[in-house]
Amino acid sequence: MMTTRRRRKKKPVAKEDHILRTFQEAARPLLMEELLRLLNAGPDQAGAGATAVDQMVARGQLVSLKGGRFGLAEKMNLVAGELSVHPDGFGFVTPETGGKDIYLVAANLKEAWHGDRVVVRIEGSRGRRKEGRVIRILSRRLTDVLGTLSQAGDTYFVEPEDEHLLFNLVIAPEHLNGAAPGQMVRAAVTHYPTGHLNPQGVVTEVLGDVEDAEVQARLVILKYELPDEFPPEVLAAAANITPDLSERALKGRLDLRHLPMVTIDGETARDFDDGVCLEKKPGGSFTLYVSIADVSHYVTPGSPLDKEADLRGTSVYFPQRAVHMLPEKLATDVCSLIPGEDRLAVTAMLNFDRRGRRKDFTFARSVVRNHARLTYRLVDDLLVKQDRGLRSRYRPFVKMLTQMTELCDLLRERRAERGSLLLSLPEAEVVLDDRGWPVDIRRVDHLVSHLLIEEFMIAANEAVATFLGEFSLFRVHERPDAVKLAAFRTYLKSLGFDLPKEVHRDPRVLREFLDEVRKTPLAPMVQLMLLRSLKQARYAGENLGHYGLATDWYTHFTSPIRRYPDLLIHRLLLSRLSGRKPPFSLDPEDLETQAAHLTRRERAAINAEREMMSRMQVRCLAHRVGDTFSGRITGVNAFGFFVSLEEVFAEGLVRLVDLPDDYYRYEESLMRLFGRRTRRIFALGDLVKVKVAHVDIRRRHVNLLLVEEEGEKGEEGNNNSAMKTS
């Protein structure tokens, strides 16, 4: 009888937690040979063990020591984390294992740059704050530098645009690639700094004149790594697509072209995702039609268009241009609900009773026609200002629009009852000149038309999320963090408000509180601070509910031209309606991975849009140095107070050093500055008059000076409109 020899199973290489435990039990640094012996690893596993240790060193869990030994970072007062450098030269390292940031004076940053992953040695503490020194750079985040090319003698260098980068990048003359001093450039880092040598690089792209508005947009696009130009294969695919109204495309679709559907968007919008129509029935019930562009008909899973849209995640909007998720032909033509054109759509039909309570809903692939391209201002003029000329011109739609406001009010009442926060913050409208630079930035409050579209989109998103159930891609908003909520409560006390303790558990309590705050002039500021205190909404593969909307089920369905999550939801919805297999994995882990990617892309877009707006604001105020404005104090700290201007949607800082009439004490708990001699107080919410004194365009800082009204700066203790006493 022939016997077979059993192969001895190789012992698997130890996992990282086993390696960490081995170091902890050894209680001393180990040579690689010692570690392998303690792990009972054979010679054939030495390579894998060394690889695991190298990875742990790269992550900062272990430290490579002289003599070939390795030690536990935590046992040697060493911490790995990301370095954040302040423009004034000092820095902080955020430990990857959690805990408080570690402070580093400028000299202890060594050659590390903002964003680098570093290992720091904790060398002491000052009060409760630990202080340290960089001993190793684990990885460099920065490989390219954006900035202005300058020249000093025979030396060329790039002055970084980012104020957190405290160095100049030296460029050899042969590496200028046609760039001239004064131009904005992009340069690749070829040599990082050492103890004796400056960093060096090579110009890879000449962006142009710093005064060119398009160059400013390009800087923001590069800084936030936004994909701008579409690859040739994506443009080629888009070029071959035309609006499909063939018999095959229309087969099985609900024909809604007879309905008086309208779009309501901003003045400059060109990509129309959503159209709305309303029917009010006898007895007072409503049927709301929300028709969304059927992007999924043209952008198929796995295609070049789809892969590029997934990569981008979202469109990004600047005052002077947009960075689209889809090529412009699709975004503004083929998919867009253009006025007077037939277009493919996915329609949500929502039925509400006379009190605005949703009774049921259905969904269908449809074909629709946009009967009128309306704007927010136009609808406001029709419904609020009752413009006779416009009402005559748009007579076929006035009755429906009036009924829409009726349903909108009912939906808001129902949302308020369940605890939805109903926040309404002003937005900025930028007026550009022929060069693309701002001549004015206006504060625009939410109009009735904004609320109308907001309510209808929320209703459609809720209905789709409810229909899909688990498993799906959700838009979630988790309950507030207790620490941030406590800070918000302290902030409110400084304004004279008491925030009920129940707000963490019940959003209805917070909504009732906000209703009271709205009766005061401090409402916009309180709402803004509340938003900063709440967690950010995000995408998730698990349904965690939406605190701000006070709803159990929510997703994004209404903007597939500009948001990739909405396109995914369209595909999932249509697969459910047709009984087909889901077009992507519904495994919770896969859904969470996709959700995390889309959240990152959304955050990058938001940050880029904010920075572009900040650049516009300082450019606008740079031409108004010396001008006087009214404003309200929106922030107070130890070095001054911030003022939000009324006439221009921008803010600036009144520095403490520019208040020469007294020595001011910062009272953090009350969020105010208190004059020791005059007993003058500058607190949150105070109205003041200020003058634009200086604008630093590079650092985007605006310095303001307090303007004293005649007779305002009186004797000690005098009380007037711009001065309070305790």
Structural notes for this entry:
- This protein is an alpha+beta fold.
- The protein has 5 domains: 58 residues, Arc Repressor Mutant, subunit A; 63 residues, Nucleic acid-binding proteins (OB fold (Dihydrolipoamide Acetyltransferase, E2P), Beta Barrel), CATH 2.40.50.140; 67 residues, OB fold (Dihydrolipoamide Acetyltransferase, E2P); 324 residues, no CATH class; 83 residues, Beta Barrel (OB fold (Dihydrolipoamide Acetyltransferase, E2P)), CATH 2.40.50.140.
- 30% of the residues lie in helices and 28% in strands.
- Helix 4 runs antiparallel to helix 17.
- It starts with 15 loop residues before the first helix and ends in a 20-residue tail after the last strand.
- Mean model confidence by pLDDT: 89
Number of domains: 5
Q: Indicate the overall shape.
A: globular
How much beta, percentage-wise? 25-35%
For the structure shown, list the relevant keywords.
726 residues, alpha+beta, Arc Repressor Mutant, subunit A, OB fold (Dihydrolipoamide Acetyltransferase, E2P), five-stranded antiparallel β-sheet, five-stranded mixed β-barrel, 17 helices, 34 strands, disordered N terminus
Summarize the structure.
By secondary structure, this protein is α+β, with helices and mostly antiparallel strands.
Give the SSE map.
Elements: H1 16-26, E1 30-31, H2 32-38, H3 46-58, E2 62-64, E3 69-72, E4 78-85, E5 91-95, E6 102-104, E7 117-126, E8 129-139, E9 144-152, E10 155-160, E11 169-171, E12 183-191, E13 200-209, H4 213-223, H5 232-239, H6 247-250, E14 254-255, E15 262-265, E16 274-280, E17 286-293, H7 304-312, E18 316-317, E19 322-323, H8 328-334, E20 342-352, E21 358-369, E22 372-375, H9 376-383, H10 388-393, H11 395-418, E23 427-432, E24 438-444, H12 448-468, E25 474-476, H13 482-495, H14 507-517, H15 523-533, E26 538-540, H16 564-578, H17 588-622, E27 628-637, E28 640-645, E29 651-655, E30 664-667, E31 672-675, E32 681-683, E33 687-696, E34 701-706
Parallel strand pairs: 11-13, 14-21, 15-22, 29-34
Antiparallel strand pairs: 1-3, 2-3, 4-5, 4-7, 5-6, 7-8, 9-10, 9-12, 10-11, 12-13, 16-17, 17-20, 18-19, 20-21, 23-24, 25-26, 27-28, 27-33, 28-29, 30-31, 31-32, 33-34
